[in-house]
Amino acid sequence: MGRVLTGFSASTASDLKRAEGLVDQALPASPRSEYAHFVKGEMLRAQNRPEEAVPEYELALAINRNFPLALHGLAWCKLYAGLLDAVIPLEEEAIRLSPRDPGIGYRYGVIGTVHLLQSRTDEAIVWLEKGCSAIPAVPFHHSWLASAYALKGETERAAAELAETQRLAGDGSFSSIARVKEGGSWRVPKTRAIAETTYFAGLRKAGMPEE
């Protein structure tokens, strides 16, 4: 699931199928395992089923409230549900619990994402730059940073970040606005509308074509 959600899977369908099989074995054997519930939440989130993922993350946190990975997954689900005000506190708590986590760049990236969606472009750039510095190989962070730079009018930096996004992805998933929308959980009208006026507007200004 980690490979799938970070964009490093060579076969998303195969990894999802394998994860589902393992979760189906793990949960009956250990129904009080916070990690098994967390991974099921990750699987559902990767399948663009965030509403179903939320109870799994909440179960994991009910078993172990000091579980930063579950807080991060729950934050993503709140983001895609359009509940933006709930996202940053969850990520801040995850950072507080695990300030030296090797995946902390993902927490920074989500915080930056929320700032961008709420049109706080300067704050978004600060957090997205931190995310890119902590984990440079994640194309998603660079795409949001490209959008933020473009919205701020820094066209050269935006174009450079967009080029880096496409280089890191390598599979065409960031070749157009249409392809980006295919890979995101933009089903909730409220979130999709916000993204249109911020994230996608910035990507267009950075030079990403529509199709």
How does this structure look, described?
This protein has 211 residues and is mainly α. The chain folds into two domains: 1-90, Serine Threonine Protein Phosphatase 5, Tetratricopeptide repeat, CATH 1.25.40; 102-211, Serine Threonine Protein Phosphatase 5, Tetratricopeptide repeat, CATH 1.25.40. The chain is built from 13 helices and no strands. It has helices spanning 2-5, 12-29, 34-46, 50-63, 68-80, 87-97, 104-117, 121-134, 139-152, 155-169, 177-183, 189-197, 199-206. It is globular. It starts with a helix and ends in a 5-residue tail after the last helix. The relative contact order is 0.09.
Brief summary:
By secondary structure, this protein is mostly helical. The chain is 73% helix and 0% strand.
Please describe the structure with a list of short key phrases separated by commas or semicolons.
211 residues; Serine Threonine Protein Phosphatase 5, Tetratricopeptide repeat; mainly alpha; 0% strand
CATH topology tier name of the largest domain: Serine Threonine Protein Phosphatase 5, Tetratricopeptide repeat
State the share of residues found in helices, binned by percent: over 70%
**Span between termini:** 29 Å
Radius of gyration: 17 Å
Query: How many structural domains are formed by the residues?
Result: 2
Name the beta content range. under 5%
- Label the CATH architecture of the largest domain: Alpha Horseshoe
Uncertain segments? none
Q: Spell out the CATH superfamily of the largest domain.
A: Tetratricopeptide repeat domain
Compute the number of helices: 13
CATH class of the largest domain: Mainly Alpha
Shape: globular
Integer average pLDDT: 94
What is the total tally of β strands? 0
User: What is the string of helix and strand elements?
Assistant: HHHHHHHHHHHHH
Helix/strand structural class: mainly alpha
Major sheet attributes = none
